[in-house]
Amino acid sequence: MASIFDQLSRSGTVEIILALRSQHTMSFAGVKKLVGNATTATRRLAELQQYSLVSRKVLQDRLRTVEYRLTEKGLTVGELVEKLKDQDRR
Asked: Which long-range contacts (CB under 8 A, 24 or more apart) does 46-50 make?
């Protein structure tokens, strides 16, 4: 497994973390729209789950909707990423 820094440099990773930080939960369709395609969304979400940054929950509705949210560790990383982004704006 690559380091968390390597993971953060992959396309879509920071965008997913920041979106989940602000929206709290997202569907797969929302993540796919954010990163541009299903393959990237699937890979990034699986990788973020491996690092315990994102949790996945299958909702018990008719459509078997899947919901993604940041874990405590993911919230911490998201906060750090947001601070770095703020510093970059200065």
From this structure: 47/7, 47/10, 47/13, 48/7, 48/13, 48/16, 48/17, 48/74, 50/1
